[in-house]
Amino acid sequence: MSEVTVAEFSSKEFSAPHDILIKPVVSEKSYALLDENKYTFIVDPRANKTQIKQAVQAVFAVKVVGVNTINRQGKRKRTRTGYGRRASTKRAIVTLAEGDSIDIFGGPVS
């Protein structure tokens, strides 16, 4: 498979790969997954695994080996006047090929 660049990215729902990748997840678990060459992102809930793979390859110029997705339901929270709900999110755990890396945290890993 050839590498996908930002200029070559095409999708019906999304005009650019940056529309799919919302932000990286910064947590202890996501930081620990870096040792296994896995990176965690919050993505658009409408995106599928193929679109997420193409977006990561286009934005970061790396080779993606696998994508796992998690749909997280928003928590019900109490407010002064009643109940509200946090927004539901979709996370993607992206596994990169051996030798590829993304500098998300801005420093050396481990």
From TrEMBL:
It comes from the Bacteria. GO terms for molecular function: rRNA binding; structural constituent of ribosome. Transmembrane segments: none annotated. The keyword Magnesium does not apply. One of its GO terms (cellular component) is ribosome. It holds the Pfam family Ribosomal_L23. PROSITE patterns: RIBOSOMAL_L23 (PS00050). The keyword Ribosomal protein applies. One of its GO terms (biological process) is translation. Keywords: Ribonucleoprotein, Ribosomal protein, RNA-binding, rRNA-binding. InterPro entries: Nucleotide-bd_a/b_plait_sf, Ribosomal_uL23-like, Ribosomal_uL23/eL15/eS24_sf, Ribosomal_uL23_CS. Gene3D superfamilies: 3.30.70.330. One of the early assembly proteins it binds 23S rRNA. One of the proteins that surrounds the polypeptide exit tunnel on the outside of the ribosome. Forms the main docking site for trigger factor binding to the ribosome. Part of the 50S ribosomal subunit. Contacts protein L29, and trigger factor when it is bound to the ribosome. Belongs to the universal ribosomal protein uL23 family. This is Large ribosomal subunit protein uL23. The lineage of its organism: Bacteria, Bacillati, Actinomycetota, Actinomycetes, Kitasatosporales. The gene is rplW.
